[in-house]
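Run log // design_07
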């Protein structure tokens, strides 16, 4: 027998227990008789049980068949039920373990040296000797370690991406709004629609994103991929001045933070046409004004073809109401000191 300890009953835990059993026995059983646990059985039935997708994937990898026990029928696996009592009374009784690893190591040693070497009352032989003589030769070869995948249904959102394993992956636009079946292992993420493989991506870490430009519309590729060169080329395709103006807008230490301004410029092209916007960009470049809001104001007021009024240069002729510099010069004022006048009573006061 083999004892595998765990605190949970997830698919990953069940697979880990099976992998540990194959290593312990030195082979894979041809038939496995599991209980109706959720990671194995999606819908229990005495005749035609529905196995979970994850368990089917693992059983195909390991190469065994599954014959589930019936619900509330312990006689379908009586040897297993009886062994549970034996393990509880002969291994766990009176023992104290500090960790799961210590307990598992002790259980594996106990299965080999105690349970395997006892004299079995029914077969009148040691179980380990009987296994090596009659059962080991009938077991199948152990396959490489199984990479437990994430298997679940995902919905394709409006941004052409799905989320699995806390990461985003792109999907062709024709599947927006549809639900796909995703399989994500440690290396690849595969997406299926009605059983057909529609997309494959390399697995990303949580918080990551993998976008295939072929999945996105042509007008969204530059923004989604932060392709600044493609964005400038799109602007230059509408006019030379528009392309130069886009380069000026993106002239920033963090150019991708200015991409919205370039997309607003392209929005003005769609609204007013390329020729007025190109003329307005040319006028703004002559004045060294780099602000999309100013381009919008010029187009709204139809000022894109108005020659710019440049500031007056030094030495320009005086205007009509200009004043001469000497008018601002005041004449020199002469100050006269007047001595204070004392009254007749002042000397008398001084004598007193």
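design_07 sequence
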């Amino acid at each position: 027998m083999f004892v595998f300890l765990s605190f949970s009953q997830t698919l990953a835990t069940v697979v880990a227990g099976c992998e540990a059993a194959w290593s312990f026995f030195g082979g894979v059983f041809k038939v496995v008789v599991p209980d109706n646990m959720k990671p194995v059985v999606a819908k229990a039935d005495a005749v035609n049980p529905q196995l979970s997708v994850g368990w089917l994937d693992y059983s195909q990898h390991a190469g065994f068949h599954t014959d589930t026990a019936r619900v509330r029928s312990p006689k379908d696996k009586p040897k297993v039920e009886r062994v549970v009592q034996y393990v509880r009374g002969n291994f766990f009784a009176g023992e104290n373990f500090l960790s799961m690893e210590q307990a598992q190591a002790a259980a594996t040693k106990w299965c080999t040296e105690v349970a395997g070497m006892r004299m079995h009352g029914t077969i009148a032989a040691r179980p380990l000797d009987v296994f090596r003589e009659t059962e080991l030769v009938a077991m199948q070869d152990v396959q490489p370690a199984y990479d437990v995948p994430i298997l679940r249904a995902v919905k394709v959102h409006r941004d052409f991406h799905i989320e699995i394993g806390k990461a985003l992956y792109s999907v062709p636009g024709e599947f927006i709004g549809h639900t796909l079946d995703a399989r994500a292992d440690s290396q690849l993420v595969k997406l299926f629609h009605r059983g057909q493989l529609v997309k494959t991506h390399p697995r990303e870490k949580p918080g990551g994103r993998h976008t295939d430009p072929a999945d996105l519309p042509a007008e969204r590729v530059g923004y989604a991929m932060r392709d600044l060169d493609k964005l400038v080329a799109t602007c230059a395709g509408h006019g030379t001045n528009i392309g130069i103006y886009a380069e000026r807008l993106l002239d920033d230490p963090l150019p991708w933070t200015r991409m919205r301004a370039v997309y607003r410029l392209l929005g003005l092209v769609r609204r007013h046409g390329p020729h007025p916007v190109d003329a307005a960009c040319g006028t703004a470049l002559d004045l060294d004004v780099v602000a999309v809001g100013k381009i919008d104001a010029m187009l709204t007021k139809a000022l894109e073809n108005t020659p710019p009024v440049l500031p007056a240069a030094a030495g320009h002729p005086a205007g009509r109401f200009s004043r001469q510099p000497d008018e601002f010069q005041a004449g020199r004022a002469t100050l006269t000191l007047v001595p204070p006048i004392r009254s007749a009573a002042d000397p008398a006061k001084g004598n007193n």
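Residues 68 and 223 are 52 Å apart (CA to CA).
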